[in-house]
Amino acid sequence: MSSSHPMIKAENIHKSYDSLRVLKGVSLSVDKGDVLVIVGPSGSGKSTLLRCINLLVYPDSGSIWIDGILTTHHEVRPEWVREKVAMVFQSFNLFSHLRAVDNVTLGLRKIKGINPEEAREAGIHLLKSVGLEDKIDEYPANLSGGQQQRVAIARALAMNPKVVLFDEPTSALDPEFISEVLDVMTRLANEGMTMIVVTHEIGFAKGVADHLVFLEGGRVLEEGGAREVIESPRRRRTQEFMSKILG
Ligand SMILES: Nc1ncnc2c1ncn2[C@@H]1O[C@H](COP(=O)(O)OP(=O)(O)OP(=O)(O)O)[C@@H](O)[C@H]1O
Ligand SMILES: [Mg+2]
After folding, report:
1. Which of 42, 98, 115, 129 stands 20 to 30 A from 202 (CA)?
2. What's the gap in Å between 143 CA and the centre of ligand 1?
3. Which numbered atom of ligand 1 lies nearest the CA of 218?
4. Mind listing the pLDDT tens digit for each residue in 155-190?
5. Superfamily of domain 2-94+161-245
6. To test the ligand 1 pocket, which listed residue (47, 90, 201) has its Cβ within 8 A of the most ligand atoms?
7. According to the 3-state scheme, what is the secondary structure of the chain?
8. What is the mean pLDDT of the chain?
């Protein structure tokens, strides 16, 4: 039964900030284990859409289901949604006064009430999985951007989410650190994690994403198989956008 519904389904999502209409009826669906990449110009509503999906903001109208459970309409607690739907931000958002391992295990300790020894063991395991076994007790200030983002990914995985949303995870990084983060994301995708990734890293999108959505002006302008939309977009506007980001 559980395989009969998509892992993420959003239907006709509208969101405005005062008089600014940001999302104008967005629908999408992501099957379990699939990776959806979202591209689109600045201000098209990409971050707002991700924030609606993990209920950092409530849509004004429309419905969202996570693993078959309707999350909008206030039927479930937003905290439940944020445990199931983890988010990785462009700017890492690590606590500077906490060591890498303590950043990773904060949720386990404070929300799940797991004892410090057990949490630390889990944190070390997670940091190893992102290639940071030698940085367990470092503070964020002593880590490169790529390392900080990998700590943030380990933190996102700590609560054992069903879905991870990435909002331009590599766009704040120096070019030399981008691939180490994309490698971790690729491995996560290959292990079967369901992911939505806002990114303009087209190599990643082509190689890893199953589907791609092109958002403009708060609407889905084109969508389809990632490789098809990148290599042969049907709409003129998508063609223009792709040729811009492909350089
Ligand atoms: N909390 C907010 N209050 C008011 N306006 C907002 C808020 N968040 C976003 N907006 C506006 O909504 C529009 C869409 O923003 P959003 O961040 O979703 O776009 P984006 O596609 O992620 O852009 P970018 O590529 O620059 O990250 C923008 O015009 C933005 O200024
Ligand atoms: Mg954004």
Report:
1. 129
2. 29
3. 14
4. 999 999 999 999 999 999 999 999 999 999 999 999
5. P-loop containing nucleotide triphosphate hydrolases (3.40.50.300)
6. 47
7. CHHHCCCEEEEEEEEEECCEEEEEEEEEEECCCCEEEEECCCCCCHHHHHHHHCCCCCCCEEEEEECCEECCCCCCCHHHHHHHEEEECCCCCCCCCCCHHHHHHHHHHHCCCCCHHHHHHHHHHHHHHCCCCCCCCCCHHHCCHHHHHHHHHHHHHHCCCCEEEEECCCCCCCHHHHHHHHHHHHHHHHCCCEEEEECCCHHHHHHHCCEEEEEECCEEEEEEEHHHHHHCCCCHHHHHHHHHHCC
8. 95
Give the global pTM: 0.96
Distance in Å, CA 141 to ligand 2 centroid: 24
Shortest-distance ligand to the CA of residue 48: 1
- Tell me which amino acid residue 167 is: D
Which residue's CA is minimally distant from atom 6 of ligand 1?
17
